[in-house]
C-alpha cells in the first residue's frame, strides 16, 4: 500500500515537473520565432518560406540564409547585414551553335543550336555580400567559321547584361536608352559604348557620356545605374543597384546600404585574418582597418545641404570617429567640436568663427580610449585644469 502511494505521488510529481518545464519553454520558443516572420515575396524576386529559407521564383533554387552580422536598425527598421548563404543550384546553361556534318542538307552541314549544361560556381556555401555584373556577348556562342556577318542583327545587337545576386540567382536587365532590343540583346555596353558598322566590320565606339540605366523585367523592379568613365573597359565602371525598398548596392557589389544610410561592406578578397590565440579566427581590432573622414553639411536654408567638410578643415581620412560633442571650449561664444576616436588620438576642433575649424590633440588632455568611458571616450581638461561645462566653459 505504501509502495503504491509513493509510486502515485512520484508520478504526480513527474507530471507536474514536465508540465512546468513545458510552460517555461513556451515563452522561449515564442521568443526564438519572430512574431512577424519575413515571409512572402521579397524585393529581389524570391519567395520566403521562413526567416532563413527562400525560393528563387525564376529558377526554383532553394536558398538558406544565415545572418552573421547586422547593423542596428535605423528609421523604418531597415538595417544592413552580412549573411552566409547556401544555394542548391548545380548547373548553368550556355547556348552554342555548331555545324552538323552528320545530317547534311543539299550537301551542306546544318547549323544546330544546343544548350550545354555547365557546373555552376554559384551553388553551395558562400558569403552573401557580393553582387556581380555579367556582360553576355552572344557572338561568342558561334565558332568563327559560322559566325554571323553584317547586316545580320546579331552582329549589332549582341550584348546582354545580367547581375548575379548573393543567393545565387541571376537576373537580366534591359537598358533604358531607346535602343532596339533583339531577343533580349542590345547594341549598348554598360559603359556607354555602342556597336556600329564602320563600312568594313562592326566595332564598339563611345556613344553615351552619361550614366546608363538598366531595369529588370521580371517584376522585381530593380534598377542598375552604371557610371561613365574615360577608358574603354566596361568592367571597371562604378555602378549602383537600387531595390524597391530603398536598399542599394555599391562599391562593385561589396557595400550594401539601407534607406537610412546604414551599410555593411565586405569582400572575400579583402577579408582580414586576425587571431587572439594563434589558432582560430577572431575579430580584428580597429588598427587593422582604414579610417573614414567625418562629414559636415551646411544647411543652405532652402531644404538642401552642402558638404563643406574639406572647406571647414574637417577632412581627415584616417579618422575613426565614435562620437562628437559640442562645447564652447574657449568661452568665445562659438561652439567647438570634440571628437572621440577609436584607437586614434581624440581631437578638439576649435571654431575659428569664419566657418572653419582647426584641429588639435595637444591643446587638451585628450586620451586614446579612456577607461572611464569604456574605451571610447576621453577626459577633457584645460591646461589650467578647469573643468568644463558643455556649452559654457564655466569653471566647476
Which properties best describe this structure?
mainly beta, disordered C terminus, nine-stranded antiparallel beta sheet, 35% strand, six-stranded antiparallel beta sheet, single chain, 27 strands
Shape: elongated
Q: Mean pLDDT across all residues, rounded?
A: 77
Q: Rg, please?
A: 31 Å
Secondary structure tally: strands: 27
Beta-strand level of the residues, as a percent range? 25-35%
Helix content range of the residues, please? under 10%
Number of helical elements: 1
Order of helices and strands: HEEEEEEEEEEEEEEEEEEEEEEEEEEE
Please, could you describe this protein's structure?
This protein has one helix and 27 strands. It is elongated and about 100 Å long. 8% of the residues lie in helices and 35% in strands. 17% of the residues are buried. The chain has one helix at 2-32, and strands at residues 40-41, 46-48, 53-56, 62-70, 81-87, 91-105, 108-119, 124-127, 132-137, 159-164, 170-175, 193-197, 202-206, 212-215, 223-226, 239-242, 248-250, 255-257, 263-265, 274-275, 281-282, 297-299, 305-307, 321-327, 336-341, 347-351, 357-360. With 396 residues, the protein is mainly beta. Strands 9-10-11-14-15-16-17-18-19 form a nine-stranded antiparallel sheet, with no helix packed on it.
Structure summarized in a few sentences:
This protein has 396 residues and is mainly β. It has one helix and 27 strands. A nine-stranded antiparallel sheet has the order 9-10-11-14-15-16-17-18-19, with no helix packed on it. Strands 1-2-3-4-5-8 form a six-stranded antiparallel sheet, with no helix packed on it.
Amino acid at each position: 500500500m505504501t509502495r503504491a502511494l509513493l509510486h502515485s505521488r512520484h508520478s504526480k510529481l513527474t507530471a507536474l515537473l514536465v508540465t512546468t518545464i513545458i510552460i517555461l519553454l513556451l515563452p522561449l520558443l515564442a521568443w526564438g520565432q519572430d512574431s512577424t516572420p519575413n515571409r512572402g515575396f521579397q524585393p529581389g524576386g524570391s519567395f520566403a518560406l521562413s526567416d532563413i529559407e527562400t525560393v528563387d521564383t525564376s529558377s526554383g533554387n532553394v536558398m538558406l540564409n544565415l545572418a552573421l552580422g547586422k547593423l542596428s536598425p535605423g528609421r523604418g527598421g531597415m538595417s544592413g547585414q552580412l549573411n552566409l548563404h547556401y544555394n542548391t543550384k548545380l548547373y548553368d546553361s550556355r547556348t552554342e551553335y555548331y555545324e552538323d556534318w552528320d545530317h547534311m542538307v543539299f550537301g551542306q552541314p546544318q547549323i544546330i543550336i544546343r544548350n550545354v549544361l555547365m557546373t555552376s560556381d554559384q551553388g553551395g556555401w558562400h558569403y552573401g555580400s557580393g553582387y556581380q555584373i555579367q556582360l553576355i556577348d552572344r557572338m561568342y556562342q558561334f565558332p568563327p567559321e559560322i559566325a554571323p556577318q553584317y547586316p545580320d542583327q546579331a552582329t549589332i545587337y549582341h550584348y546582354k547584361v545580367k547581375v548575379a545576386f548573393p543567393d545565387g540567382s541571376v537576373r537580366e536587365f534591359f537598358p533604358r536608352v531607346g535602343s532596339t532590343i533583339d531577343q533580349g540583346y542590345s547594341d549598348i555596353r554598360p559603359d556607354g559604348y555602342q556597336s556600329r558598322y564602320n563600312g568594313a566590320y562592326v566595332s564598339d565606339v563611345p556613344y553615351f557620356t552619361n550614366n546608363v540605366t538598366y531595369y529588370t523585367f521580371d517584376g522585381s523592379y530593380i534598377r542598375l545605374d552604371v557610371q561613365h568613365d574615360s577608358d574603354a573597359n566596361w568592367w571597371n565602371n562604378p555602378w549602383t543597384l537600387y531595390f524597391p525598398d530603398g536598399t542599394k548596392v555599391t562599391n562593385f557589389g561589396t557595400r550594401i546600404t539601407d534607406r537610412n544610410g546604414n551599410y555593411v561592406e565586405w569582400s572575400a578578397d579583402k577579408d582580414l585574418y586576425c587571431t587572439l590565440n594563434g589558432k582560430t579566427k577572431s575579430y580584428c581590432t580597429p588598427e587593422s582597418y582604414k579610417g573614414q573622414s567625418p562629414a559636415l553639411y551646411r544647411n543652405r536654408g532652402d531644404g538642401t545641404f552642402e558638404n563643406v567638410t574639406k572647406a571647414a578643415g574637417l577632412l581627415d581620412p584616417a579618422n575613426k570617429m565614435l562620437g562628437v560633442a559640442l562645447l564652447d571650449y574657449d568661452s568665445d561664444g562659438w561652439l567647438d567640436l570634440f571628437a572621440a576616436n577609436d584607437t586614434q588620438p581624440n581631437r578638439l576642433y576649435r571654431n575659428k568663427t569664419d566657418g572653419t575649424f582647426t584641429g588639435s590633440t595637444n591643446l587638451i588632455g585628450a586620451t586614446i580610449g579612456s577607461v572611464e568611458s569604456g574605451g571610447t571616450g576621453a577626459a577633457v581638461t584645460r591646461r589650467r585644469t578647469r573643468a568644463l561645462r558643455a556649452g559654457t566653459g564655466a569653471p566647476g
